[in-house]
Write a structure and sequence with these properties.
327 residues; mainly beta; SH3 type barrels; five-stranded antiparallel beta sheet; 24 strands
């Protein structure tokens, strides 16, 4: 589904510049970031003055995110906008830096996406179709490649890999991922051969890892379930009380996680949510999810949820997002 929409998608800025959260929506803030510029200044406060520089950080330095300053309000520097981040160094020093010079330590990317700035020094992996019934993880090398855009009348830089085939999506991470089997989809869409992909109210999709589980006793099964009330109101379709839940069944203790707080829309149109991919990226026999939604008047996002990063009472946790901006 994503590849079919690329003609109107024009850029992704590889910076730490989160979209402001909507009322009731969970704002995604990475736990750690990495310096992607050749070097940056760490400052004692969120001001661009020479007197508040407390450290010089080189490319590849990893920092813990303490918080977004001023709830992520954007600041302009040389015609570019990004928020101030309050950060903690490995030695415990606290300071501030602009997100334009940083990248999350776990990011989602796509081939041919517009790259603005340096590619962060991370381990890069691609999720590829292995055969008709399975996907695989491959370690890849990525690079920036210059192309001329007729629409922009300028030279742009896009992301390319060293592989001959095109990845379903790419992951950049500080951690090492296990290469090999990634999931059971292969040539099939995530929701099956006969569905369009939308997680509309009333849709229930089994999400599986495809791995053999050697655990003693009955294995858990997982579903992604969409609920809500759809109605025709004022000459338009309206959906009330939309919920997207991940459900674990056939376990000794059943568990339900509500993912809806990540998917609240800023507009009045019905929510557009698609399950793009599922599998097992972290080899723990619990499904990982790639979910696409369009909560903004312009542009959409793709979010990766990993089971290995889940906290107490969770099945998965959002670890990264990719913004598709269009007109």
């Amino acid at each position: 589904m994503i590849q079919m929409q690329r003609w109107w998608l024009w850029c992704f800025l590889l910076v730490v510049a989160p979209i402001e959260a909507l009322p009731g929506q969970v704002s995604f803030v990475p736990e750690k970031v990495i310096v992607k510029a050749s070097s940056i200044n760490l400052r004692s406060g969120p001001l661009l003055t020479n007197g508040n520089i407390i450290a010089r950080l080189k490319e590849g330095t990893v920092l813990e995110v303490v918080e977004l300053h001023d709830q992520g309000a954007m600041v302009e520097l040389n015609g570019r906008w990004s928020p101030w981040y309050k950060l903690r160094t490995e030695s415990g020093q606290i300071g501030y830096a602009l997100g334009d010079f940083l990248s999350p330590t776990l990011i989602i990317q796509y081939e041919d996406a517009w790259i603005d700035g340096n590619i962060p020094a991370l381990n890069w992996y691609g999720i590829y179709q292995k055969d008709a019934h399975s996907d695989e993880i491959r370690r890849v090398r990525v690079r920036k490649e210059a192309i001329y855009s007729e629409a922009q009348q300028d030279t742009l830089y896009v992301l390319r890999t060293d592989q001959l085939d095109t990845a379903k999506f790419l992951i950049g991470t500080l951690e090492t991922m296990q290469e090999g089997y990634a999931g059971p989809l292969g040539s099939m869409e995530a929701v099956g051969w006969f569905a369009a992909g939308e997680m509309s109210p009333g849709i229930q999709v089994p999400v599986v890892t495809g791995r053999e589980n050697d655990a003693v006793g009955p294995a858990s099964s997982y579903f992604l379930v969409a609920t809500g009330c759809a109605d025709w109101v004022d000459n338009a379709m309206s959906v009330r009380d939309y919920k997207l839940r991940m459900v674990e069944v056939q376990a000794e203790e059943q568990q339900i996680q509500d993912l809806s707080s990540w998917l609240i829309c800023e507009h009045q149109h019905p929510p557009t949510v698609q399950l793009l991919w599922y599998g097992d990226l972290d080899c723990d026999w619990v499904p990982d999810l790639l979910i696409h939604d369009c909560p903004f008047e312009m542009g959409c996002r793709t979010s990766l949820f990993l089971s290995s990063k889940a906290k107490q009472n969770e099945l998965v946790r959002k670890v990264g997002e990719f913004f598709w901006q269009g007109n």
